[in-house]
Amino acid sequence: MDGVEVVVQGGRGGDGIISFRREKYVPRGGPDGGDGGNGGSVILVADPSVDNLSHLTQRKHWKAEDGQRGGSSECHGANGEDLIISVPVGTVVRDAERNFVIKDLVSPGDRVVVARGGKGGKGNAAFKSSTNRAPRIATPGQDGEIRRLILELKVIADVGLVGKPNAGKSTLLSRLTRARPKIAPYPFTTTHPHLGRVVVDWNRSFVMADIPGLIEGAHAGAGLGHEFLRHIQRAGILVHLVEPEPADGSSPLENYFVIRRELELFDRELINRPEIVVVTKADLPRAEEVRAKLAEAIGKPVLLISAVTGEGLDELVRNILKILESQGRFASPA
């Protein structure tokens, strides 16, 4: 689940009360009504142990606890507890009614108050004065803030795998990491991004994301294009996988340029990201021929790999590390 709409509401403040001391030997005890407690707030927290928004789909309204009513003897009512909602790292919190971003939760532990609790009311003890020694007024607690939110998840990865459906992205991710995305010999088996960590050695690793397959028109929403493309925006490096013999008979070279056009039309900055072009399924007869033609067409090296046999995977990882090191992701080995 990559996007969900919810309503959040802060708790209502507790009412202040009207009360007077009535003790046997205190004939003029005076006012002692306490203030009401503040309502709890709704807070979103980026939690690395949460990887999707599905837990929010079963409940559309989230409300924090109300504050308690004030008591006699100037007792303050208890404050309502805050409602903490855990969301994945990379969640964009947007105000649904005014369409602006409230907070982008990009780091573990990032938090934002999305609905503040109401203030507690004042008891009559707060209104006593030299001219009004027996006030008979108290104020009610305030209502908590109500907000309609749109929560969108954009995965955060060092490397994003892009390409047409069935190009081999899921197989590659499962080979290089412990992630186990669904793999099948037909298109669109991946319907949401999968993340995995590629461990190179004791001090070098990086996060790789399998972005669901793109098709022509994705920038305009075709094939859930917007759902897929927004995840690419946070991938530092794009590994573009090209299938040498597509099942639909399309041209591998044309497929490459189709995806590049979709990236540019969605977000022009994406085509300036570091890109590693890879022809997959090296065991197929035309794989080497396609690699050579594609390299000539784009004017830069194209790798040839097989996620099944392992051919070319070490070279791919070395190329990724080289770019990450140049970006200062970690220090280059001595």
**Helix- and strand-based class?**
alpha/beta
Query: What oligomeric state do the depicted chains represent?
Result: single chain
- Count all strands and give the number: 14
Output the number of helix runs: 5
Shape: rod-shaped
Rg computed from alpha carbons, rounded to a whole number of angstroms: 29 Å
Low-pLDDT ranges = 181-191, 215-226
**Beta-strand proportion:** 15-25%
Kindly summarize this structure in a few lines:
It contains five helices and 14 strands.
Provide structural commentary:
It is a single chain. With 334 residues, this protein is of the alpha/beta class. It has helices spanning 169-176, 225-232, 252-266, 287-298, 313-326, and strands at residues 3-9, 42-46, 61-63, 83-87, 91-95, 100-105, 111-115, 146-153, 157-163, 194-201, 204-210, 235-242, 275-279, 303-304. The chain is built from five helices and 14 strands. Strands 10-11-9-12-13-14 form a six-stranded mixed sheet, sandwiched between helices. The chain is rod-shaped and about 100 Å long. It starts with a strand and ends in an 8-residue tail after the last helix.
Key terms for this structure?
single chain, five-stranded mixed sheet, 5 helices, 334 residues, alpha/beta, 17% helix, 24% strand
